[in-house]
Amino acid sequence: MKIQEIRQLSTDDLIQKEKSLKKELFDLRYQRKLGRVEKPANFKSIKRDIARILTILNEREKDGNPS
User: d(Cα 35, Cα 27) in Å, to the nearest integer?
Assistant: First the structure.
């Protein structure tokens, strides 16, 4: 996801997206243990998306902007 796309989402949507990405990361880690990961580059992209979402949420919390 691009940062502009993330900024357009509401806080509730960001929290939901973060949860779904964390679940996806968990599933990928499980697949890694079984040796069935098709695209190992997904780890990096999912981690970065989670970090971007957390950054936006922290910025909004500091600014007091709940949108």
Answer: 12
